[in-house]
C-alpha cells in the first residue's frame, strides 16, 4: 500500500494496521519530502527556524548552532510515563505519521519516512509510552520513536518528527471504528426490545422525521422501519415510554457525532500539521499541532453516547416491569418470588455509571506550561482514552438490554417466524441460538458475555454488509 499523504481514512488506516499490510512511501511524496528538506536547510541559513536553530517552548528565543541540539532534544523529550501503548496503537500511529510526512510539510528527508516504513514492514515496533501528551503533540512517544530510528534523525530533524499527534490519532481511529460499529448495532437491540414491549411503530413513520429532518435521526428512523415494517404485532399502547418513543431522537445525534469524528480524523491523518510548516521557499510558524478539533469531536461523541446508554437502561426497566411487558416481574420463571433478571438492572446501571464518569469533557482541562509560553491544551489524548473506556461500558449496557429483551420474547412465547415478514426475525433467531434458554434463577454472567460477543459479531457484519438489515447470516 502506497502512502502518499492523501486519501487515508480512519477505517482504511485501522484495516491496514490490523492486517499488517506492507506499506511504502509514494514516489511523488518522496520527491516532495526531498524538496522540502532542501528548502528548509536553505531557509535556516538566513533566518531562525523554531526547533532547528532555536530552543523549544520558552527557549524559543535562544538561538543555537550546536550540532547535538537535536539529539539532546530527543533525549530530554523522551521523558514519559511508564505505561506502554498497545502494539496496535503503535503500529497505527507509525503508519499515520508516515502518511503525514508524505505531505512534505515537515522538512524531513524521505529517509526518515523510509526508516519508519522499515519498522512497520519488519514488525520491529519500538516500545512507546504514554505520558506527556496533552493534545499539543505526542512529544514523549515520538521522541522515543526518534531515538529508535537512530542516525537517520539528525540534529535538524528532531523537532519536525515530534510535531504530530500521530499516536493520539491512532487511538482515535480505533475508537472511531468501535463507535461506528457499536452505534450500528443499537437499532438491532432496540428492535428486539420494541418486539418484546410491543411498541408502537408510528414513532418511525417517515412523515414524523420529515417534519424534523435532523440527519442522524432520519437515518435511524429509516433503519428502524427497515427492521420493523410488516411486524404482525398489535401495539400495546398508543404512546410508548421514552425508551421506545425517543429512540431515533436520542441515537440520531450519536450517529451524527460518529460521522463528525470520522470527518475530523480524515483531515488530520492526511494533514501537514507540523510547526513550522515548510511551504515552498518559506517556513510558517503555526499552531496546527493543537488537537482541539479532535478533542471536541471525542467529547461530543461521548456525551451523545451517554444518552444512548441511559435510554437503553430505561428500556431494561420497562422490560422487567409487568405494567409495560405484561409478563412476570423481572421476567422470572419457576418458583414463587424468583428474581429472574433482577440483577441485570444492577449490572446495567453499574456500567451506566462508568459511561457517565467517562463522558465528562476532557476539554475542560487547563494547563500552563513552559514558563507560560504554552498556556492551553486540548487534552485530546485523555479524551481518546476516555472514549475507549466509555465504549466498553456502553457495550455492557447494551448486552444487558439484549439478554433481557430476548428473555422477554421467549417468555411471551414468540418465535422468529412469528415476526415475519419484518426483517427483525433473523436477528432474533441469531440471538436465540446464541443465548441459553434456561429461564430458572441462575447467574446470568455467561449470558452477558455471550451477548457482548454477539454485539461484536453483529457489528462486524454491519461493516461488511452495511446495506443488509434483513439477515445476519
TrEMBL record:
An MF annotation (GO) of this entry: ammonia-lyase activity
PANTHER family: HISTIDINE AMMONIA-LYASE (PTHR10362)
Annotated InterPro entries: Aromatic_Lyase (IPR001106), Fumarase/histidase_N (IPR024083), L-Aspartase-like (IPR008948)
Native species: Kribbella amoyensis
Top-level taxonomic group: Bacteria
Lyase among keywords: yes
Record protein name field: Histidine ammonia-lyase
Alphabetized Gene3D superfamilies for the sequence: Fumarase/aspartase (Central domain), Fumarase/aspartase (N-terminal domain)
Pfam families for the chain: Lyase_aromatic
Keywords: Lyase
Entry annotated with the keyword Lyase: yes
Amino acid at each position: 500500500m502506497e502512502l502518499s499523504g492523501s486519501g487515508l481514512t480512519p477505517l482504511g488506516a485501522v484495516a491496514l494496521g490490523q492486517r499488517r499490510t506492507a506499506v511504502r512511501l509514494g514516489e511523488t511524496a518522496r520527491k516532495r519530502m526531498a524538496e522540502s528538506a532542501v528548502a528548509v536547510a536553505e531557509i535556516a541559513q538566513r533566518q531562525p527556524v523554531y526547533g532547528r536553530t532555536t530552543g523549544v517552548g520558552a527557549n524559543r528565543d535562544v538561538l543555537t548552532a550546536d550540532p547535538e541540539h537535536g539529539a539532546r532534544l530527543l533525549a530530554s523529550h523522551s521523558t514519559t510515563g511508564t505505561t506502554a501503548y498497545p502494539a496496535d496503537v503503535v503500529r497505527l500511529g507509525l503508519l499515520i505519521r508516515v502518511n503525514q510526512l508524505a505531505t512534505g510539510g515537515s522538512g524531513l528527508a524521505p529517509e526518515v519516512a523510509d526508516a519508519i516504513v522499515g519498522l512497520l514492514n519488519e514488525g520491529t515496533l519500538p516500545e512507546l509510552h504514554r505520558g506527556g501528551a496533552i493534545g499539543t503533540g505526542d512529544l514523549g512517544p515520538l521522541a522515543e520513536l526518534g531515538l529508535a530510528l537512530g542516525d537517520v534523525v539528525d540534529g535538524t530533524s528532531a523537532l519536525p518528527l515530534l510535531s504530530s499527534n500521530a499516536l493520539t490519532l491512532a487511538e482515535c481511529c480505533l475508537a472511531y471504528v468501535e463507535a461506528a460499529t457499536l452505534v450500528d448495532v443499537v437499532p438491532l437491540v432496540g428492535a428486539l426490545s420494541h418486539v418484546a414491549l410491543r411498541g408502537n411503530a408510528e414513532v418511525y413513520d417517515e412523515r414524523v422525521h420529515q417534519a424534523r429532518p435532523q440527519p442522524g435521526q432520519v437515518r435511524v428512523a429509516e433503519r428502524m422501519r427497515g427492521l420493523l415494517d410488516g411486524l404482525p404485532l398489535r401495539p400495546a399502547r398508543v404512546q410508548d415510554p421514552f425508551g421506545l418513543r425517543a429512540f431515533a431522537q436520542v441515537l440520531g445525534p450519536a450517529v451524527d457525532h460518529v460521522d463528525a469524528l470520522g470527518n475530523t480524523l480524515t483531515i488530520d491523518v492526511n494533514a501537514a500539521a507540523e510547526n513550522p510548516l515548510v511551504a515552498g521557499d518559506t517556513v510558517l510558524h503555526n499552531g496546527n499541532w493543537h488537537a482541539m478539533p479532535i478533542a471536541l469531536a471525542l467529547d461530543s461523541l461521548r456525551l451523545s453516547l451517554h444518552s444512548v446508554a441511559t435510554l437503553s437502561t430505561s428500556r431494561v426497566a420497562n422490560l422487567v416491569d409487568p405494567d409495560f411487558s405484561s409478563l412476570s416481574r423481572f421476567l422470572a420463571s419457576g418458583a414463587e418470588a424468583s428474581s429472574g433478571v433482577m440483577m441485570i438492572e444492577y449490572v446495567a446501571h453499574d456500567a451506566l455509571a462508568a459511561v457517565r464518569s467517562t463522558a465528562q469533557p476532557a476539554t475542560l482541562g487547563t494547563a500552563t506550561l513552559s514558563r507560560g509560553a504554552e498556556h492551553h491544551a486540548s487534552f485530546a489524548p485523555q479524551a481518546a482514552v476516555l472514549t475507549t473506556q466509555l465504549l466498553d461500558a456502553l457495550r455492557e449496557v447494551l448486552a444487558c438490554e439484549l439478554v433481557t429483551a430476548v428473555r422477554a420474547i421467549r417468555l411471551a412465547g414468540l418465535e422468529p417466524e412469528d415476526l415475519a415478514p419484518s426483517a427483525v426475525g433473523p436477528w432474533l433467531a441469531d440471538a436465540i441460538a446464541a443465548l441459553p434458554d434456561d429461564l430458572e434463577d441462575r447467574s446470568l454472567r455467561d449470558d452477558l458475555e455471550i451477548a457482548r460477543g454477539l454485539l461484536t459479531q453483529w457489528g462486524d457484519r454491519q461493516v461488511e454488509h452495511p446495506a443488509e438489515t434483513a439477515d445476519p447470516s
